[in-house]
Structures are given as C-alpha cells and as structure tokens.
C-alpha cells in the first residue's frame, strides 16, 4: 500500500478484485497488497459475487481450471453475465493468467478441450484465440527466465512458471491492436495446435507468444504470482489500471 502522494494531487483509492471462485487467487491478493504504486492506495478484494465485482475498478482472473471457474460462476446467481459484461467492456482493466487468459479469449476462440462444451470464453481480448494445455500436462510444468522489455529493470529476466499452460492459436484482425510483450525462444515452444480443428489453421508466428496486451487488458499464459516477482502486476496496474482512472 502506498501513502506517498505526489505534491498537490490527492492519492486515489483503487479497488482491485481477484476472482476467487477456483484456482490460485490468494497469491494474487498477496502480490497486490505488496505493490507500491506512487500516489495510489490499492485495496485487493476477493471477488465471489456480482456485488463484489461491481465495487472493483479492475479485475484479475487467476490460473486454475477455466472450465471449473466458468462452472462455479454459472452456479452463482448473476455472476456469469456480470463477469462477461465486466471482462468484455474495453474500459475495464482486466488481467488474465493461464486459465484467466483462456477465459479472456474470443467466445468461440478456445480449442484443445476434451469435451465439446469446454471451449467457451468470456471475451475481453478481441481477436485472441487460444489452445488449452498445448504445453502439456502437470508433469510437463516448467520455468523459464523470460525477457520482457516493457517491465521495470528490463534486463533482469522474469522467472515465468508454466503449468498446463495454454498457447496462442492465432490473433484475428480486430479494431484494437494486440501488442506482443513476450515470447519464448523456439526450443521451448511445442508443436503448434492441429490444423483440422474448428479454430482452423493456427498461426505459427503466434505460438511462442506468452504475454499480450490490448488497451486495458493483459494476459499471460504463465503464472507470475508464483515467482516472487511483482513486476508484471506493477506493469498492469501502472499502464492499464491507473492510466484508466
Ligand atoms: N495453470 C492453469 O491455469 C492451467 C489452465 C488449464 N489447463 C485450463 O485449461 O484451464
């Protein structure tokens, strides 16, 4: 939490929600509590119902299991439509990690699930199409010292942790540009998704991309909240949340 406001400017209070229906939400809350963003008080809130969501300026959708998160949201009165509306609104800052990235893809833009209805997402990153579990199962989890030029101390690698991670299948043309903020080197990238799926031909240029931004929306296919490094949270709050106030 930051108390130091800049001279003559009152500090703003930011309520940042972390969707707490399933998955790794508590770690994100601890990270937000550690963030020091000049001139802003940050309150981290575990979000479990539409009223809590409505009180937030911004939202983090954690990693976990995208189908389970949708299922729990669907059983909570009013929650699924409230989340879909919040996430799809370009003025609302939202950060999705791993399962959260899957849920921020286009509604018809998810492949790789075992069942037919595994593939529906909530939108937010217009044009994003993802493939679930392309990096393999739990046993294929790995860490990589990722180069992310937009972070503070850009020369210090970010220890990115990939757990049953999704990959970018392709990026459809949309009015809002999607920035590619970080990619894995070729020897860490799995074979692209199959060409004969309902999502069509994958774009092999986008398979290595693991961090993307579109306006106030950010997604990473890895778990930043497990690495002990708050720089990605800091980046999102400074560039997507504070800039939106
Ligand atoms: N670590 C994760 O969030 C894994 C995501 C999971 N494979 C899914 O499809 O939802």
Quote the beta fraction. Answer: 15-25%
Radius of gyration, Cα only, in angstroms? 17 Å
Q: What small-molecule ligands were found?
A: glutamine
Give the C-level CATH assignment.
Answer: Alpha Beta
**Helical amount:** 10-25%
The mean pLDDT is: 93
Major beta-sheet overview: 7 strands, mixed
Structural class: alpha/beta
In short:
The protein has 245 residues and is an alpha/beta fold. It has six helices and twelve strands.
What does this structure look like?
By secondary structure, this protein is an alpha/beta fold. It has a single domain (12-244), classed as Class I glutamine amidotransferase (GATase) domain (Rossmann fold, 3-Layer(aba) Sandwich), CATH 3.40.50.880. It has six helices and twelve strands. The protein has helices spanning 25-34, 50-54, 66-75, 79-88, 99-103, 231-241; strands spanning 12-19, 40-47, 58-61, 94-97, 110-111, 128-131, 142-146, 158-162, 167-171, 179-183, 209-214, 217-220. The strands form three sheets. It has a seven-stranded mixed β-sheet. Strands 5-6-9 form a three-stranded mixed β-sheet, with no helix packed on it. It has a two-stranded antiparallel sheet with strand order 7-8. Strand 11 (209-214) and strand 12 (217-220) form a beta hairpin. It is globular and about 55 Å long. Bound molecules: glutamine. The site of glutamine has 11 residues, from helix 5.
